[in-house]
Amino acid sequence: MSDKLEKGPITRKRRSTISGAAAGATLKQVNGKSNISKSNKVSYENQDCDGSSKEKDHALQTAAKERKYESQYVGKLSCHKLQESLLSSASGYSNYRGILNWCVVMLVLSNARLFLENLLKYGILVDPIQVISLFWQDPYNWPAACLVIVSNVFILAALYTERRLSVGTFSEWLGTAIHSVNLATILCFPMFTVLLLDSVTPAGGVFALGVYTILFLKLYSYKDVNKWCREIQHAKARSLSRSLSCPSVQRSSKRGGQGHVSYPGNLTHRDLYYFVFAPTLCYELNFPRSPRIRKRFLLRRLFEMLFFIQLLVGLIQQWMVPSIQNSMKPFQDMDFSRMIERLLKLAVPNHLIWLIFFYWFFHSSMNFVAELMQFGDREFYRDWWNSETVTYFWQNWNIPVHKWCLRHFYKPMLKRGVSKWVGQTAVFFASAFFHEYLVSVPLKMFRLWAFMGMMAQLPLAWFVGRFLRGNYGNAAVWISLIIGQPIAVLMN
Ligand SMILES: CC(C)(COP(=O)(O)OP(=O)(O)OC[C@H]1O[C@@H](n2cnc3c(N)ncnc32)[C@H](O)[C@@H]1OP(=O)(O)O)[C@@H](O)C(=O)NCCC(=O)NCCS
Q1: How do residues 37-92 score in pLDDT, each as one tens digit?
Q2: For 86-122, what is each residue's pLDDT tens digit?
Q3: Single pTM value for the model
Q4: DSSP 3-state helix, strand, coil percentages of the chain (rounded to 5)?
Q5: Please, where are the H alpha helices in 18-142?
């Protein structure tokens, strides 16, 4: 400190004795500019013209000393700058990785407490044998599996109808009628079988109806795409015959690389069964294909599939089932405060199970199947967790269904002049129907809660879009997911 006081005035005094050139050099040093020595040199060259070399040396030494002092003290003298606190939004700071880790740690700790509480209260309830009995009551009677095997009849019916349509043996009208009957049967046949056959368990029923629903959507897409191909073919044929220099339609459709399929070359068993097993609901003649099967990727997905399915089953048996059983009484007594307490208690395991299901199904399982089939398009979900509106959530959480809805239902409706609002309502109505179909039929309970839950998305989407923005919108979407599902579960 005393050193500083001593040297300060000396510096100032010397600065006044040398010419402006030295002062200029000092200032430049303070500002951290790199051309100091150059400016000094130029200045002292000028001085050299009218002064002695001694004077020049002295000035140079003084400037060097001055630079040394200033560089020594400049960092010490100023230690503040104009800046915002990190947590102010104006600071522009956005790296909250540590906070995220803290949330995960808190989540693990609080759930560990709940897990212990559950173990102390109920003991171990996980029972893999019970899971098997959910699908097979009688080892010699597999109705759900038989239903799935029978579904091949509908697949072949769609293929043979398309073959007839491609050669003109069936008119478009007849083809549409046959496809409609086939598709209606795909929905009705398993429904009546599950309702009438007592040997079909609820889990078996959900599995069989799930397979048939997927098949319905796939064959609907297959019918549409082949029809579009025929329309393109007819349009081409018309324009070519008009121009009188007509290379055959067949020849023109052979364009493309090796392995490129064109209509009607796609109407084969191999092509249709590839589509049936591929993780998509939208048919295409030439799916993007990955170059090879990555074995390590495949094994990792397989391991995840096996691990998460065990975890899901364990959590349902240990946590979900006792919570639901405990919630029945307050709901029967209409005891509102206890009902809300039970609802919030059920929300935690329900949400955790739903998140694990999402990862298991949309990431592990779909990627596993896609890798095995070298199916290239792996966009099975997008960043729905950042949804700030309900609309964004439905556009991004289940891409195969959303893609199908847009391509085969929503856009065709808009093209026919239907308004956006009516189109969206119709899509949500159809989606609500399928949700109800997959819940009510296997459980043999028709309470319409799944249907209403899906239809409630429309007013919810309007409310969140109209009144909430940004993080508030995102929180609203999360709350609707966390609370909405247990409400539907308990109402059923
Ligand atoms: C109803 C639903 C399809 C609406 O989707 P959306 O993306 O909000 O619809 P938009 O009005 O923004 O339009 C989407 C597309 O239609 C196109 N479009 C809009 N108006 C159009 C018109 N008049 N004619 C043709 N296309 C039109 C848009 O360009 C856009 O095309 P792009 O996807 O290629 O960019 C969607 O909310 C949905 O999939 N809902 C159901 C989801 C569901 O039930 N999932 C089940 C999961 S378990």
Answers
A1: 444 444 444 444 455 677 888 888 888 888 887 777 777 788 898 999 999 989 99
A2: 999 899 998 989 999 999 999 889 888 888 888 898 8
A3: 0.80
A4: 75, 0, 25
A5: 20-30, 36-50, 53-77, 97-122, 128-135
Query: Closest residue (by CA) to atom 48 of ligand 1?
Result: 398
**Best CA proximity match to 295, nearest among 374, 378, 381, 377:** 374
End-to-end CA distance of the chain: 79
CA-closest candidate to residue 59, choices 75, 72, 46? 46
Q: The tokens of 246 are what?
A: 């007509």
Minimal-distance CA residue to ligand 1 atom 21: 414
Q: Find the residues whose C-beta lies inside 6 A of ligand 1.
A: 391, 394-395, 398, 401-402, 405-406, 410-411, 414-415, 420, 424, 427-428, 431
- What pLDDT digit, counting tens, does each position of 193-207 carry? 999 998 888 889 999
> Among residues 179, 402, 408, 435, which one is catalytic?
435
Q: What are the structural domain ranges in the chain?
A: 2-73, 122-287
Per DSSP, what are the bridge partners of residue 375? 289
